[in-house]
């Protein structure tokens, strides 16, 4: 649906009723800022407001969704178009949970790796950390037991370590503080690499940093690392098999690969009026593009079996799968995300070994 057109139509019909934005808002029991947002095309009225809006503006729902007054000849055609648009919107609305954020509009897209890299690099170079927050060791994610408790990285003393998606460098400091002998970091965003460099320099920590998509050949040494790990990085790959093959090549024989990501079941379930509602199919692995303020991201909701099978296909053996919730943290949160974490895993972490 054309939100801008609908917004202009609401404004036009409001003025025909000789109502100011404030008067219109007062009748609906909302703020005039919300009305202004609709009329500027920056959002749509919630479902519960649509019929009252029509009653006040003396239009019907089909005209509201069309953004114009309709003749009898136009009515059936517009009704069918609006129905298809509503179905598409309902479908796209099922794919817009990232971390703890419920996003706005999300549309299915055909994967173009170069476009995905550009889109996601721009996001992480600008508002990514601000919008989604930053997850760094010892945390594996919201409401998950910490690394200090899980200990899935193992003994880090004298280890050569590579982080995929090094972000701001906090996780590299964590492994350095636990005795890692050599630190490497990889990230798609030059801005993130610069943040990592500045942070580690201030801490007196040396690290070799590489800016590249994780799927690409980027000059990292092969058969070299004792440990490769990633905290909320792997899910951004455009090619899971290629990424796992590269990580396998970086590791020594019997080297360890550990990564965590948002649990697929978490992305299928929303909290509505205190209840958990399935809003997406677990089996849906389509790529989608979602709006994040004035930026976009491109992601795919992969099944847990997709990650596990890709590990097996690329020379790894699974040693441990974490699907735990720190119930004490979840109970103390007093929000929908925490209540959801009491019922299902929101994050998973995997420890695998190179054969």
Q: Gist?
A:
This protein is an alpha/beta fold and about 350 residues long. It has helices spanning about 5-15, 20-30, 30-40, 45-55, 60-65, 70-90, 115-125, 130, 145-150, 170-175, 190-200, 240-250, 305-315, 325-335, 335-340, and strands at about 95-100, 100, 105-110, 160-165, 180-185, 210, 225-230, 250-260, 270, 275-280, 285-290, 295-300, 315-320, 345-355.
Structure, explained:
This protein has 355 residues and is α/β, with parallel strands linked by helices. The protein is built from 15 helices and 14 strands. It has helices at 3-16, 21-28, 32-39, 47-57, 61-66, 72-92, 113-125, 128-132, 147-150, 170-177, 190-202, 240-250, 304-313, 327-333, 336-341, and strands at residues 97-98, 101-102, 106-108, 160-164, 182-187, 208-211, 225-231, 251-262, 269-272, 275-278, 287-292, 295-300, 316-322, 347-354. It has a 7-stranded mixed β-sheet, with helices on both faces. A 3-stranded antiparallel β-sheet has the order 3-11-12. Helix 2 crosses helix 3.
Largest sheet: 7 strands, mixed
Q: Output the number of helix runs.
A: 15
Q: Report strand %.
A: 15-25%
General form: elongated
How many runs of DSSP E, i.e. beta strands? Answer: 14
- Radius of gyration, taken over Cα atoms and rounded to an integer in Å: 24 Å
Terminal residue distance: 52 Å
Strand order across the largest sheet = 6-5-4-7-8-14-13
Unreliable stretches: none
Q: SSE string, helix = H, strand = E?
A: HHHHHHEEEHHHEHEHEEHEEEEEHEHHE
Helix coverage percent: 40-55%
Q: Which assembly state applies to the chains in this document? A: single chain
